[in-house]
Amino acid sequence: MELGKRLKKVAGLILPSDKLADVGCDHGYLSVYLVEKQICKYVIAMDVNKGPLQKAGDNIRKFGYEGYIETRLSNGLNKLHFGEAEGYVCAGMGGPLALQILWNDRDKVKEMKQVILQPQSELWLVRRTLKQWGFVIDKEDIEFEDGKYYFMMRIRPGNELCMDVAPDENAVFPGEDFAVAINGSEMNCTDEEILKTAVYELFAKELLDEHNEILKEYICKEENRLLSIFKSLSKQEDSAKCRERKAAIEKELAIHQWALKQYET
Fold it and tell me: Using CA atoms, how far apart are residues 163 and 135, in angstroms rounded to an integer?
């Protein structure tokens, strides 16, 4: 089974496992790859939609892995039994949905050794929420494929895991307000510390520390996009709304510029 660059990097984050759940398995390509490469001895391929799950079943039979991969119609981890899998992988869903799956079956997740996430959006919210809950991010990676950048991570429950608070649906984006980027409080924190927290929420400390070149490309493109919007706003008639939007973009630009400076050290 050949995978695209994105899913291959997702697979590269998965630690060898006896039994893993593939949540949102789509056509089952990742599940087949994990068994074929002997990364996982057994995979439970799960999807909320019947069509993709049927396709996954066809692919499993095509490659002869019926004894190593089973399919289940499931909304998130709903049909996974408690303690049945050592972990799960969830690739290709929006950030809020990935968090909701964690939250909905948190009692199952607390007992898992690893969870691999590849959120398609709101990475900053995912990282912030995982930190608040007490998860440890063991490893992060990034890939560029078909004109898009994809972030992925492997996490595990920390020693002080506490999932008593649901994901915040009204969380404020780090660029909107630096103070909110550190859980709504700027007490005992300098602007530099607040800025650093926002940067790490958006771009991942590990990837910045290792001077990841794909991440640098992503930051540069985002910076250019913001600059283009700022220039466009500067040509518009002055208004309170326009000034507010420009101020927000200036904060986002400060985050991107601080991140790029890390590549100079």
Answer: 10
